Amino acid sequence: MKNLFEEVRIGDATLKNRLGMSPMTRNRALPDGTPGELAAEYYGQRSSFGLIISEGTQPSDDGQGYLNTPGIYTPSHIEGWKKITSRVHNEGARIFIQLMHVGRVSHPDNTPHHRQPVAPSAIAPGVEMYTAEGKKDIPTPRELGRNEIKEVIQEFRTAAAAAIEAGADGVEIHGANGYLVQQFLSENSNLRQDTYGGTIENRAQLAIEVTKAVIDEIGSEKTGIRFSPQGTLNGIEEGDTNIEMYRYLIGELNKLNLAYLHIMHFGNEPLLQEIRQLWTQPLLVNRAGRPLEQLTMDLDNGLADVATVGIWALANPDFIERIKKSAPLNEPDLNKLYAGGAQGYVDYPFLKA
């Protein structure tokens, strides 16, 4: 695993190692979306990772889906994130804030304005959402008008500027996991008849326009994007054209010289190899569920420049030290992933000196 601990450059940031912490929702922000008091400790504890990608962070009221997730579009949000980025930088790591607009994966009970969710088309995802009153069916969303799509793109731009003001090294556009960007990409969630629907090029347009807007605001060297090709989370079915979609989309985005592309990999090895050939900038790959002994597989094979991990990072703030010493890993407390305060958040034990 020696190559894990080599420096690597993404955009204008140099990472101290090739391990990244994947974005993971923790539901511990204040009701107004300001990161909670323990958030700086949580991220600071995990700053032995070369790169930290924050939990999904909404760029607007409409962008929120879950209870107590952070935002990055008000002065209070910016001040809260400053505490986090300062702590992470003091520990020698880099941090990108993930911009997550959930689209239809929301419920009026969970948002500040209690409005109907928005989406490319008025099609419910067919999944449930946790609310303060328990699990509820997600309602049918409202189809975004063309002018509203332009407003969404502006929300990403504004949020990206706010993230940089808060001290982040960059932002990651969330185009995965069945949220708004992937809803536009997918055949079962986008039935539009205008220039944002129908053809592959049209369905890819939102992802490309959001990326260009963010680049225009903060620079390509501070902009990353995440996709989950062939993923089916949150009711998404990309359809028979999905491979052609990603060929086109990644080819177009490759022209923009982004800091990185982050792939949540679901097992299609030929597709991952094709993405590696199409993408000439740094590639981050997350393989959920892989055994620890395969941690460096994609680095060793040249398929990735950075390996990202999720649940291991959550339960092991000193994951890098444990890897170096071949020490056993903590087991995650699955009952406290998405609720509570310090327990299951900042109280996982470190290796004893």
UniProtKB/TrEMBL annotation:
<dbReference type="Pfam" id="PF00724">
    <property type="entry name" value="Oxidored_FMN"/>
</dbReference>
<feature type="domain" description="NADH:flavin oxidoreductase/NADH oxidase N-terminal">
    <location>
        <begin position="4"/>
        <end position="330"/>
    </location>
</feature>
<dbReference type="InterPro" id="IPR045247">
    <property type="entry name" value="Oye-like"/>
</dbReference>
<dbReference type="InterPro" id="IPR001155">
    <property type="entry name" value="OxRdtase_FMN_N"/>
</dbReference>
<dbReference type="InterPro" id="IPR013785">
    <property type="entry name" value="Aldolase_TIM"/>
</dbReference>
<keyword id="KW-0560">Oxidoreductase</keyword>
<dbReference type="GO" id="GO:0016628">
    <property type="term" value="F:oxidoreductase activity, acting on the CH-CH group of donors, NAD or NADP as acceptor"/>
</dbReference>
<dbReference type="GO" id="GO:0005829">
    <property type="term" value="C:cytosol"/>
</dbReference>
<dbReference type="GO" id="GO:0010181">
    <property type="term" value="F:FMN binding"/>
</dbReference>
<comment type="similarity">
    <text>Belongs to the NADH:flavin oxidoreductase/NADH oxidase family.</text>
</comment>
<protein>
    <submittedName>
        <fullName>Alkene reductase</fullName>
    </submittedName>
</protein>
